[in-house]
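Two proteins follow. First one:
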Amino acid sequence: MQIKILDKVYECENQIDAVGTIFDQIQQLLTQSNTSLSSFEIDGVELYSEYDQYIIDHIDSIKIIVINVKTLKELMDDTLNSIQEYTIKAIPAIDKMVNEFYQGVSQDTWDKFSQLLEGLQFIIDSLNTIGDNQDWYYNASQFEVVKQKLLRQIVMLQIAMESQDRVKLSDVLIYEIIPSFKALAKEITVNTEYGQVQ
């Protein structure tokens, strides 16, 4: 089989051990080129996850594996676009959650709240990456402002949860988190309009 990545083509036997050896070399190449895996194309089938299981299941018949890579900047651009989509969809969901906090909380409400906290953590982690690479985005300082606000708001949510104050929790969501999500979506849009996010 052939394994293609960047400008390299590797030849190997259709055996797990041989493929594993090549993949060790590929990992070194990724590190040296400052890129990350984006997707695999195995005999025309595009895979974004579980490619290792696919290779094991089809090891005898695979002819060509094309490994698509992206730079960290390209991955971050994709992540920002995903965050923008998430924040836009999350705002009406937060409104609904706030109503549920006022009217009566169910397990589903707490599950949605937990998902929101996970989303907030992902956003913070992503904004940390931007902070570490400020030359990628001309308005990186604005992303930092939003990140700091979100960090303070997460603390406010924790305090409200610890005191079981659903009114305070709702207030933080509606008057703090939603405006921060709108501000973040705006900053991503600004980058998109100026060609900074592809």
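Second one, unrelated to the first:
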Amino acid sequence: MRPGSGLGFASVLMRLTLGAVFLWAGLAKIAGRVEPAADDAARLVAVGVSPVTTDTTAVRRMHAAVTLPLLRAATPVSVGDRPALVAWPDWAAGKQAPRLAWAASIADLVFGVFLILGILTRLASLGVAFHAAAGIWLTVLAPAIQARDTVLRFLPNRHAWDMEFWMPHAGLLALLTLALALVFIGPGPASMDRALFRQTPPPSP
């Protein structure tokens, strides 16, 4: 085996896995449907999100996965007599939240395709890393901090062996780590980047 060939194979495997996951996630957010709770449905209607059909309250999954976390982070509910903690800028919530949900879902698709083909791999991986980090903040850390129910001031106060709670969040952390690894090690040999940007070795003297 040539030196570095193992690392190249690992890079390709990581890239294809990460690309497939994000391509699937983007499709699921756009094509998937979910029935929000009554309070959440009212909150979505207030920012212009309508049900996908007139005979149901179901909305696109992106609004449950992205729009609602943005709204909760930017306009939190007070806990007791303490002031509410804002965890997301107001200018990026409100009526902008559904637009950001669409942008995030389309970005999932684009990043997924780019990673699978190995096009602008490092840039796509950086986008995926930012996306995963934002997901961890909005769905794990910010809700716990806003509820003032934390361990070490930022982790949710849940039992360490609560697999049902932690496993989805551990998945986001794994995706973030994979994306950052690809930023540093690149796309690997079987990629469009390697074909398009291959450097010609200097001529022998």
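SUMMARY FIELD: The chain has one domain: 9-195. The two ends are 29 Å apart (CA to CA).
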